[in-house]
Design a protein that fits this description.
With 170 residues, this protein is of the alpha+beta class. The chain has helices at 26-41, 131-143, 149-152; strands at residues 46-48, 58-63, 74-86, 90-96, 103-110, 112-118, 124-130, 155-158. The structure holds zinc ion.
């Protein structure tokens, strides 16, 4: 495993639509392992492949429970993901992005989503997510279409130093 460089704006790869993964061979497996390591090192709760300059529909997410700090974070690897359900209720939350260092913004998103995709072995998986986990999935999947939180934010501001993990989804 190796750390990969996280690309930041204005890198063009962040604005492109990523292509579907079709090859689940060793190269993809290495990319996934590297993304997990890079996400943990950052630290972040999610990372999309375009953020490490790989224009592929692949995200990794690692996040615990909103309500209970004693539940250990769960790791998700999702390939070619699609959101098949959005809840009708939404919520405004403060987001940041490893590819837009120094900025945060308030983004309104649906509170719950159902995500379908493939795991790293190419097997179908379905995840029902609520709250922050749902927000993280939406933020990361936006990256696969070249969409960034600043495009959706009602308000964006510059912050000094490290933003607290609690306030920022990534
Ligand atoms: Zn991001």
């Amino acid at each position: 495993m190796a750390l990969r460089e996280i690309v930041t704006l204005p890198a063009p790869v962040l604005r492109r639509k990523a292509r579907k993964v079709t090859d689940f061979g060793p190269e993809l497996q290495t990319l996934i392992d590297d993304m997990i390591e890079t996400m943990r090192e950052a630290p972040g709760v999610g990372l999309a492949a375009p953020q490490v300059d790989a224009p592929l529909r692949l995200i990794v997410v690692e996040y615990g429970d909103d309500e209970d700090e004693n539940i250990p974070p769960k790791l998700y690897t999702l390939i070619n993901p699609e959101i098949t359900r959005f809840s009708s209720d939404s919520e405004v939350g403060t987001e940041g992005c490893l590819s837009i260092p120094g900025f945060a913004g308030d983004v309104e998103r649906p509170l719950g989503v159902t995500v379908k995709g493939l795991n790293r072995r190419g097997q179908p998986i379905k995840i029902k997510a609520e709250g922050w986990l749902a927000r993280i999935f939406q933020h990361e999947m936006d990256h696969l279409d070249g969409v960034l939180f600043i495009d959706r934010a009602e308000k964006v501001w510059k912050h000094e130093g490290q933003t607290s993990q609690a306030a920022v989804s990534e």
